[in-house]
Design goal:
four-stranded mixed β-sheet; mainly alpha
Length: 413
């Protein structure tokens, strides 16, 4: 579905959507991922998976650098990267389902944005003109990847409040202006995402707490957060720790984690699991900064990091093993269909009418797959299961069907 959208729209129009970020185009950075790979590899899944792994590797690199910049502790930075790498509730879908590339790219550009901002502001330095351009470019790439990255505006503003002492407000102000333009298209534009069933908003305290408790359960891989007071208690306890430690960076991380899920706090359908990848960045910054605040020697800190890393891996592996088969099974029918399409000795001529009498999917998958498999915008592809009346077979140039999940050709020219 995602690839078909960009394939229909075309690469250059998608690039224009990136520049006209207020126009309401659907996550146009996805086209930068999908279409170049498609031109080279079509529907072979391996190149897409390699690209996703490279994106996640980039996120891990920037997470390491962010925490190192914050804490000056490579052990804390390693722990942060390890948590992101193996988190069993949030990361598995990012590894196994290409549809979550939006979350992966959002995390990549948001982490790059935060790292560059911290680096540019090192020792209280003000931002130069090129610095501001780089910040704007990363933010545009992030919001054009997924809407939840608007939380980064609050992160940068919070940094100036808690750490920078409001000495540099140009970048947050610039991003606020960009965000207001962007949200005008997302909320009031002709293809407003807020009108989609999965993203409709319910601005109530009840919805806020329902969603926030679910998100806490995902972050901590538990089902124990089941009452509003527990959410309040978590944030109060973390605030108390910040008061005890007295580190401005820790307060900033606390604030970043607190606001990280605000973009999805009121969605009627909670956006948990892999959709929390960007929010996870704030949580690992908080955890790693807290770890770095423990007054121990560097060699002891590294030993503790290794032990914690081993414990984390030992705890995560069984949860990965229990979940992975479901993701693999979810792809089996799709790959079986694509593999059988590869066995066809010919393909429809331009402007042909094609009918799939039956197919193994419940939705429109077969029409989407066939269109991009044959890479022909002129084909008229119908699905027998979706027609209101029995089709007139004589009007079709190609007729195919599936017996179960086995492709069979009924008619070709």
């Amino acid at each position: 579905m995602n690839l078909r959208y960009y394939w229909n729209r075309g690469f250059w129009k998608c690039l224009a959507d990136i520049v006209n970020f207020w126009s309401g185009g659907y996550r146009p950075m996805g086209a930068v991922f999908y279409l170049p790979i498609y031109q080279w590899a079509r529907l072979s899944p391996v190149p897409y998976r390699i690209a996703i792994l490279l994106v996640i590797a980039g996120v891990l690199y920037f997470v390491f650098r962010i925490v190192l910049e914050l804490t000056k502790s490579s052990a804390a930075a390693a722990i942060a990267a390890a948590i992101v790498c193996v988190h069993p509730q949030i990361m598995i879908a990012n590894y196994y389902n290409t549809s979550f590339l939006y979350d992966d790219m959002a995390a990549l550009f948001t982490s790059a944005l935060v790292y560059c901002y911290l680096r540019f502001r090192r020792n209280g330095r003000n931002l130069s003109g090129p610095n501001l351009i780089a910040i704007a470019a990363f933010y545009l790439a992030a919001i054009n990847s997924k809407e939840s990255t608007v939380a980064a505006v609050a992160w940068l503003a919070g940094y100036e409040i808690f750490v920078g002492r409001l000495r540099e407000v140009r970048a947050p102000a610039m991003l606020i202006v960009i965000t207001l333009l962007y949200l005008s298209g997302r909320v009031f534009g002709p293809h407003s995402l807020s009108q989609e069933p999965g993203y409709k908003l319910e601005i109530t305290a009840s919805r806020f707490f329902v969603n926030q408790l679910l998100y806490l359960n995902d972050f901590f891989v538990t089902a124990g957060f089941n009452a509003n007071w527990k959410w309040i208690a978590v944030w109060a306890a973390l605030a108390a720790v910040c008061l005890i430690v007295r580190r401005r960076e820790l307060w900033w991380c606390w604030f970043a984690a607190l606001v990280s899920t605000l973009p999805v706090a009121f969605t009627v359908v909670p956006r948990g699991g892999a959709s929390l990848f960007v929010a996870l960045l704030a949580w690992v910054m908080l955890a790693a900064t807290l770890f770095a605040s423990i007054p121990i020697r560097a060699n002891v800190r590294w030993a503790a990091a290794v032990v914690l890393g081993c414990m984390l891996t030992y705890w995560a592996i069984p949860r990965w093993r229990a979940t992975i088969p479901a993701f693999i099974d979810d792809h089996r029918v799709t790959w079986a269909v694509i593999s059988q399409m590869n066995t066809l000795r010919a393909h429809p001529a331009p402007h042909s009418r094609v009918l799939f009498v039956n197919d193994p999917f419940d939705g429109w998958d077969m029409a989407l797959i066939a269109g991009i498999f044959w890479n022909d915008h002129t084909l008229d592809i119908d699905l027998g299961k979706k027609l209101d009346h029995p089709p007139d077979l004589s009007s079709y140039d190609w007729i195919l069907t599936f017996d179960g999940d086995k492709l069979r050709t009924i008619r070709t020219p």
